[in-house]
Predict the 3D structure of the following.
Amino acid sequence: MKVVATFARARSESSKVSGPIGLVPTMGSLHDGHLSLIEEARRECSHVVMSLYINALQFGDIEDFERYPRDLERDLRLAASAGADLVFVPEDSTMYPEGDVSRVSFKGISEIMEGSFRPGHFEGVGTVVVKLLAGLQPDRAYFGRKDAQQLAVVRRLVRDLAFPIRIVGCPTVREKDGLALSSRNLRLDPKCRESALALSRGLFEAADLAESGEIDGPILERTAMNVMADTLGVEPEYATLADQINAVRISHVDRPAFLAVAARIGRVRLIDNIHLELVERSVVVDRGLRLSHKSVLYDDAMQQDGSLENRRVS
Ligand code: AMP
C-alpha cells in the first residue's frame, strides 16, 4: 500500500492500474464501518484509494474538530489490512490552497436535520468531496448509510455537477449491542456509552412499528424521540423521517425513506438512522450490520498487528 500527499502522485499511481478506481473518503480514526467501505470497494474495483483528511470546514464546533481522534500510524495499518492500495493524506495547503474561495452550496436539501443543527456543515462536506472527486478521479466512491443526509447530498452533487462517478451507499456497521460505530464513540465514558444506546434503541422500536404496518411519520419520529428523551444523560436534537433522495421531511413512509436521529450525550454529539424501503407495499427496514466482536476502534492488540480476524460482521 502506498501513501501519497498530492493529487498528482495519487493520479499517477492510479493510472498504472487498469479497471475501476474506487474511492473511500474518511477522516481517519478508522473503525469497522470504514473498513467495510474499503472491503466493498475491494470487491468492485481494481484500485482502492482511501483518503484520510480531517476537514475543518465541515466542523462548526471548533472543540469537536480539536478533539477529533487522530492516529495516522494505526489508520494506515488498518487500511492496509482491509485491502486499500493507496492512501491519500493531503496537507491543508493541498486541499485549501492559499487564496482558496470556492465553495459548494446546496439549496433545499441541506437545511433540515444536520443542516440546521450544524450550519455550514454541508458546504464543508460538499466542497471537500468535490475536491476529492476532481483531484483523484475515481470511477466509484463509497459512502456509509450511517450519514444518510450526507449520502443524499453527495448523490445530488455528483448528478448536478455532472461527475461521471457512481456513488455507492453501504450499510451502517454497529457494535454488538446496536450502537452505530463512530470515531466519536471513543470519547464516551462508560456511563455515556450506556446512554448512547438510546439512539439505536429508539430507532429499532420505530423499525418494529414500521414493519408491523405503521407508516405515519410523526408517530415513528415520536417513538424514537421518546426513547431518547426518557434516557438519562441524553439530550435529543431531532428525530426526522425523510425522503432518501431529496432528504426532505415526509409525513408517511410512501417512498424510500430514512428515519434519522441526533442527540448529545455529555459533550459528544451522535447521529444514527435506519433506512426504510417499500417492498410490495410493506416496509422493510435496513437496521445495518452488527459486529460479532468488539470493534477495532477499541482494540489495542488489533492496533499493533492490524489483524482483521476479529471483525467479521453479521
Ligand atoms: P467519517 O470518517 O466519519 O467522515 O466517515 C467516512 C465514511 O465512513 C462516511 O462515508 C461515513 O458515512 C462512513 N461511516 C462512518 N461510520 C460508519 C458506520 N458505522 N458504518 C458504515 N459506514 C460508516
About this structure: The chain is about 35% helix and 20% strand. Residues 26-27, 33-34, 36-37, 143-144, 146-147, 170, 172-173, 180-183 surround adenosine monophosphate (CB under 6 Å).
